[in-house]
UniProtKB/TrEMBL annotation:
Main location: membrane
Annotated Gene3D superfamilies: ABC transporter involved in vitamin B12 uptake, BtuC
GO biological process: siderophore-iron import into cell
GO molecular function, one term: transmembrane transporter activity
Keywords on record: Cell membrane, Membrane, Transmembrane, Transmembrane helix, Transport
Membrane topology per record: Multi-pass membrane protein
InterPro entries: ABC_BtuC-like, ABC_transptr_permease_BtuC
SUPFAM superfamilies found in the cross-reference section: ABC transporter involved in vitamin B12 uptake, BtuC
CDD domains: TM_ABC_iron-siderophores_like (cd06550)
Organism: Paenibacillus montaniterrae
UniProt name for this protein: Iron ABC transporter
Pfam families recorded: FecCD
Subcellular location, record wording: Cell membrane
Amino acid sequence: MNSSATSHHHQGSHIPKHFTLVLTIGIVLLGVCAVASLLFGARVIRWNELIDGLFNPNIDSFGANVVRKRVSRTIFSLFCGAALGVSGALMQSVTRNPLADPSILGVNTGASLFVVCGIALFNITTANEYIWLALLGAGITAVFVFGIGSMGRGGATPIKLVLAGAATSAALSSLVSAILIPRAYAMDQMRFWQVGSVGSASWSSITTFIPFLLIGILIAVITAPALNALALGDEAASGLGVRTGVLRLVAALGGVILCGAATALAGPIGFIGLLSTHVIRLMLGPDLRYVIPMSALAGAIILTLSDVCGRLIGNTGEVEVGIVTAFIGAPILILLAIKSKVRSL
C-alpha cells in the first residue's frame, strides 16, 4: 500500500508521459468521428453537400438539410458521451472500483424507472420533464445502492457495491416491465427511449442538457485532486485533510447529475463510462486531473463512433447506439473482470 501511495504522490507533481500525444490523437479522432457522423447514415452525404449544409444557410437542397439535421445529433452524441465518460470516472473513484459504471451500479435503471413512471402514469413527454425525473431516480438509486453496499462488515467494499448495483438494477428492470406491459401507448414511446438512442436529438434537448453537463464536469474537475488522495485509502486521505464522506457525496452527486441527464435524453446507454475511463487509465495512469477531462474526450469519441457504426450496420434503418455500445462493451467488461481479479484500485 505504501509503495502505491508514494507512486500516487509522485504522479501528482508532473504531467503523465504521452499526455500531449494522447490528447492530440484524441482531438483528431473526435474531429474524424464528428465529420463521419455528418457524412454517413441512411443517405451518404457528398463533400459539397456537407459544405453547403454547414456554411450556406440559404441553400435548400436535400443533402444540405440532412447535414443540418445531423449536426444536432452529432453535438448531442458528443455531449452525451462526454457526460457518461466523466460520470464513469467519478463513479469508479468514489467506489474505488475499476468496474463501476453508472449502468453497473444501477443508476441508469433508477433513472429509467422514474422516466417510465412519468411516461406511463403522468403522460410526460418533454425532455425538460424527463431530466428532473431521471435525476431524481438516479440519485435515489445511487443512495440506495451505496446504503446496501455499506451494510455489514468492512463497509462499502467495491465488490459489495457492484453486487448491490446488479441486484438493484435487476429489481428495477422488472418493475419497469411491470409498469409498461399493461400500457401499450407508453410501451411504444418507451421502447425507443429504453434502447438508448441519440437519433431523436433536437436543439431543445441539447440546450436542456448543457447546464447539467457543465455543473457535472465542474464538480468533477474541482473534486479531482481530493479524489486522487482518496485512491490511497480513506485513512490516508483523511490524514491529508480530505473529508472523505463529504467528498464521496459531492463527487457521486456530480456522477449522478451527468448520468441522469444523459439517460433522460438518450435513454440508458451502458458501458461508455467504463470503457472510456479504462482506456484513459491504461494510457495515462491514475491521476484524475488528467483522467477526468480525457474520459470526457474518450466518451464522446466512443459514443459518436458507436452511433455512426449503428447507422452503417443498419443498412436502411439503423441499429440504436445502446445496442452497439453493449455489443462492444460486454466482451471488454468480461476481459476486465478477469484481469481485475488480479488487481483492484
